[in-house]
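G., the chain you wanted modeled:
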Amino acid sequence: MFLVTVVLGIVTTICTQPVETFRSAYKEEFPFMGYMNRSNIQTCALVIISTRKFVTAAHCLMSWDWDNIQVFLDLSRVEACAGSRKLRSGYCRNILEYKVSKNYARGSRSHIYLADIGVGHLEEPFELSKTIMPVTIVSPDPVVFKKSWDDIVNTGTTCITMGWSVVTVTSEYEHSFYVEDYIHLSNVQPWNDTKCRAADRDRENMVSFGGICISCDRTELTRVSEEGSALYCNGKWYAVMSDVGLMNERRPGRLVLLADFIKELNISHGTSVKPTKVLVFVPPILLYVYVIKCILG
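Predicted structure as C-alpha cells:
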C-alpha cells in the first residue's frame, strides 16, 4: 500500500445501500480526515496525505468573487485541524502555503470549478496516532490508479463520502444545509464517464478536467455534502469532493479523481501561494450554513 502525497480528480456518487447509508463515523474510522477552521467556523474538509501535507478542493484555497476577481485564502486566519471526529476538537496547525492544479479554472457557472484540487503545506507537522494517519491510495502510478477506478465503476461498487456538512433534500430541486458536530458518512455510487458527460455541458467539461459524478438513492433524503472531503472505496482514497449538488440523477455530486493529479501536485507543479495581504475567502455554501444556524439559533 502507498501513502499519498498528491491531489485528486472530480467524482460524482450515488447512495445505494438501504442499510446505514447515513450515519456518524466510528472512533478512529477515518484518521486521515480533517477540516479547515476559521474563527471556530468549519469551512472545508481536508485529507491528510503526510504529516505536513493535506489535499482539499482548490476553491477552498483560492476562488473568484462576484466581480470575477481572484480571492486568496488568508492563511493568518485559518488552521488545518485533525485528530477527532468532533468539530472544534483535536489538533490544529497553521498553514504555511498551498498550491492548486495548473489547470484549475472557473466553469461557465459561478459555483462550478474545473480541476478543483489543491495541496496545503503545514508550518508544523501533525503527530501520527490512531486518530491522525495519512490516507492510502491504490497506487501512485496514474495508469494503475485509473484501472482500479474503472473496476470500481464497472462493478457497481458502493463508495463512501464523509464530512461534517450535511444536506437534506426537501424537494426535487430544493435542499437545506446544516453542520453536524461529529463526522458522518453516506454510501454513494459512482457514475461512468459517459453518464457524467451526458448530465449537462458543465459536467462534460468537468470530465475532461478529471472530474467524476456520484449520486444517492432518491429515498435517502439526508447525505454528507462536504467540499474538500474524500471519496473512499474499498478502503482506499479515490477523489476529492468539489461541488455537492443534490446528489441525484438531475444534479449529481461533482468530484475530482486523483489519477490525473498525483504526479502534478507531487512534483510541485501548479501555482504555489504564500499570500501576505489578501481578502478572506469563505465558500458561499458555508456562509449559507452559518446564516441558517444563526437564524435558527
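The helical segments are 142-154, 193-199, 201-208, 262-266, 284-296.

Shout if anything looks off.
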